[in-house]
Design brief:
By secondary structure, the chain is an all-alpha fold. It contains four helices and no strands. The chain has two domains: 1-30; 43-94, no CATH class.
Length: 102
């Protein structure tokens, strides 16, 4: 048995090395599965970054409307939306959607 093992020593080492590299290729921190997980996380973070950049641009725009040069139309729109406020002799209708189906 020992003689046989000595004959196939190189084959055994090569087999173990191939198995070792194969498992490390698939798993581990830098493996193939981890690569796809990190790629998915990166794409999700890029989408979130684009969404946050758009929100920042929107808030900057709204902030610029409320700066030194006031846009009175925008302020009137805000007051009407937030406080359900109207002008004299103006009727305001609040439409609520019913989720019940007939």
């Amino acid at each position: 048995m020992l003689k046989r093992l000595k004959k196939n020593y190189l084959l055994l080492i090569a087999t173990f090395l191939i198995l070792y590299f194969f498992f490390n290729l698939l798993s581990g921190q830098r493996g193939l599965i981890s690569y796809f997980d990190k790629k998915n996380i990166l794409s999700n973070l890029k989408k979130e970054e684009i969404s946050l950049i758009n929100q920042i641009k929107d808030l900057d725009f709204k902030n610029s409307l409320l700066s030194d040069n006031l846009d009175l139309d925008y302020i009137e729109t805000l007051i009407r939306e937030r406080f359900i406020f109207g002008k004299k002799n103006e009727e305001i209708y609040i439409i609520k959607e019913n989720d019940t189906k007939n």
